[in-house]
Amino acid sequence: VVVGEIADADAAAEIASRILKSLALPLRIDGVEVITTCSIGIGLFPLDGEDFDTLLKCADIAMYQAKEGGRNTFRLYDPQMNTSVREHLQMIADMRQGLIREEFCLYYQPQFDLHNGHLIGAEALLRWKHPQLGMVSPGAFIPLAEKSGLIIELGSLVLNEDCRQTALWR
Asked: How far from 119 is each of 98, 144, 159, CA to CA, in Å?
């Protein structure tokens, strides 16, 4: 949606809110009630860019931030978003390289029976030792792996390594 002559960011936010409310109204299609949602990114002229391509890029980045925020919402572009997007893309590229360089490994957390104290199993925990960042928290890389599709490769790695380790223990 392109809207001209907007007074300020508050006016753009008001328009986005009205769009969200309108799209949230149920539709009846062939007797089935359908509810839609959307995520809206907003780029403002001339603050965020002075040409269409730049404004579209800013709105697109803001839209992805809105999606990350839980969908069915809007975000105004903020230059900090660029940094966040670049960091995510770099982390994904690093994960791809980390898989090739075998930087991921499993740690095992023992599980005990609380009644008798006997070891009853172990939980496999995936860890990533990044060459520059050191140990990267799973909370930082697992969500990105899920979004990028790398979770499939990480899952295969975990399954294969866990089976190999279990065979050694037996």
From this structure: 32, 34, 21
